[in-house]
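hey so i finaly got around to running the thing on ROK family transcriptional regulator from Kitasatospora griseola. pasting the sequence first so u can double check i didnt mess up the copy paste, my clipboard has been acting weird all day
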Amino acid sequence: MTTQKSPRSPQAGTPSLLRAINDRAALELLLANGPLSRTQIGSLTGLSKPTASQLLARLEAAGLVVPVGTTAGGPGPNAQLYQVNPAAGYVAGLDVTSTTVRVAVADITGVTLAEHQVSCKGWPAATTVERVAEAVAGTVRRAQLPAGSLREAVIGIGGAPDPVTGKLRYASHLPGWHSPRLLEELAAAIGAPVSIENDVNLAAVAEQSVGAAAGCEDFVLLWAEEGIGAAIVLAGRLHRGFTGGAGEVGYMPVPGAPVSLNSRRKHSGGFQDLAGEPAVLALARAHGLRGADATQAVAAALDAPEGEAFLAELAERLAVGLAVIASVVDPELVVLSGGTPTAGGERLRELVQQALGRMSIPRPEVRLSALPGSPVLAGALQRALASSRDALFSTR
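ok and heres what it spat out for the 3d tokens, dont ask me to read them lol
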């Protein structure tokens, strides 16, 4: 005879767990709303005044919040205001291409303290780790912080780390970034934990956090510049795929482009041959337009009599690839990012929206990137901040 165990009753949260939950809620409110008083924190969290006072005392003792003045102009005595302590931690974000390394350093509240850019043309592969660390150290100095101040660094790069081996894939154009111990070497040289993420994925992180996709849980970001790439966000989370290669759409077979039978050869068919930079420049020349790169050619089209026909054909090409992606993913939103669509502005966006509506059953809204500067750098900072806040704000 067997006896069945009765199911356990749900356990109430321990006091330390409840304190940690309340502390995290208060810190998130302070990040979102700026300086708040004890009364305001209590009102927004539902905590009593004594509990809110204990919470603030605990966070101030931990160095996570600081007093920043008092309220004024209201009835009764002025109340002390608190904000998240900017000096509680610092992070770095990097945007790495085949020609440049951009670095930004931010405090834990998300305020960027310094940015720096160095050329990496001609770097010997063996010196990559050393020179990246030098660029980061230089940016830390520009932020007037001492060495060793960083809690984390996130690097955006035109490839994808294999989730099993950690080796960088899809990045043959980046010599010096393929060591099996790359992360360990970078962490030791920079003096902080390092993670690497696909650059287009980070652009999507930035758009979802503070850009055109804020509040959207199902969207695709299409990046068009020298190459073509995409990031896919489903149910609010990045979809990386089994090998980390989700969104590597450059070689995706599309109508109007040759099918790639050798995906190891650069620019060998697929969507890249239809809408990558070499194809955009060739299309521009066919319409009598010139530019040193795709961005210049597209920008010139906005003011040229022959530019409208060029933009319309470019929009058709971009929409062909987007129609393939939309038919599989069915996103709520498409965000156009990278130099090519950004240079085309609202007119190119409008033409892509129209073309996509003609050729696709799913008809997601098309928006332009809403971020100034490098979306990849912004996404790297957002990812580093999220990870560092998770660690710092765990007060149990």
